[in-house]
Amino acid sequence: MPGIALHFPRRQPCLTRSASCSALRPLPRWRQRKRRRVNWSAAATLSKTVGSCAHCHTPQKLVDARLVELPGLHLAGGYGFDNPVIGRWVGANITSDPETGIGGWSEAQIATAIREGRRPNGTIIGPPMPFAHYRKVSDADAAAMATYLKSVPPVRNAVERSAYRIPLPADWGPPISGVADPPSGDAVARGAYLADVGHCMDCHTPNRAAGGGRDWSRIGAGGRTMVGLAGPVVTANITSHADRGIGRWTDEQVIRAITHGVSSDGRRLSPPMPFENYSRMASQDLADLVAYLRSLPAQP
Predict the structure, then answer these.
(1) Nearest in space to 94 (alpha carbons), one of 62, 60, 55
(2) How far is 107 from 81, CA to CA, in rounded Å?
(3) Residues contacting residue 128 through CB under 8 Å, at least 6 positions apart
(4) What are the tens digits of pLDDT across the range 28-81?
(5) What is the CA radius of gyration of the chain?
(6) Statement: residue 222 has pLDDT above 70
(7) Which end of the chain is more exposed for a tag (fewer CB within 10 A), N or C?
(8) Do 151 and 53 touch, CB atoms closer than 8 A?
């Protein structure tokens, strides 16, 4: 998050590769449809691999320097941290529980929450949801994510609301519709789309020195300090810079870092990177992601 498309058997252009990509219509048409055929494996893959919903919406613990979900609480919320700038954020319960989760939301409302950051009651969802990236998710893929989340077994788990120190905007941008699936024959474009779905650059791009958000002129340069269960971790430079980035790494080494958390020199990398989720990505999707990373201008 941050176009591409995940790979599934026998399908071609859209991210979900479902048996009925044509059935995953742009959002305004959902309200006119009572039932839609969906490739459930594809829909789940969007959320369980590069989308990595559970990374923020499932309570976790640190085991052998790796994040492990607490049993029985998949997507049930409650995982969060205090941030000195934004305040305390807590991942919401996004299971199908009607009282403590999103079981009462329609698929269209879920997709709106994912891409536009607005709940059915009109309130705005705050950070760290990366809406700058999720707004680029295609209509078909937003539909697939929403369909999958509606299928998640309900877990009754009331969690605290996030308490922000910063004012939230009135919105994160205008309403979204008509976002096409990414091109199937362009590895760099597909990799860029994967990076948006996975919001890679939200962590791997530094903030402006004077404040006010990311310095997108230095996309991929790293240097942000992320605080989590593993303690403070400074994100890496993942541009093509030969010395400070991954310019000298082989494709295999880049993929190993993404999926297994091992650097080119064999050093073990630390969370919060959700290596377990990324390890489930299809080989072609990983290759496309690497192609995109290779295209980033070198940043010192």
Answers:
(1) 55
(2) 28
(3) 56, 86, 89, 202
(4) 333 333 344 555 555 666 677 888 899 999 999 999 989 999 999 999 999 998
(5) 18
(6) yes
(7) C
(8) no
Asked if 196 and 137 count as a contact pair (C-beta separation under 8 A), the reply is yes
Continuous H helices in 152-216 = 187-197, 200-204
91 close to 79: Cβ distance less than 8 angstroms: yes
- Are residues 118 and 126 in contact, defined by beta-carbon separation less than 8 angstroms? no
Nearest CA-CA partner of 186 in 278, 298, 292: 292
Please, is 99 exposed, middle or buried when counting C-beta atoms within 10 Å of its C-beta (0-12, 13-18, 19+)?
Answer: exposed
pLDDT, tens only, 281-295: 999 999 999 999 999
Q: How far apart are CA 258 and CA 276, in angstroms?
A: 9
Strand 231-234 versus strand 225-228 pairing type: antiparallel
Q: Are 285 and 206 in contact (CB under 8 A)?
A: no
Residue 22 DSSP code: G
Q: Which two tokens stand for residue 282?
A: 């299809």
Cα(265)–Cα(248) distance, integer angstroms: 11
Give the count of alpha carbons within 13 A of 163, CB side only: 6
A 10 A CB-CB count for 42 gives 25
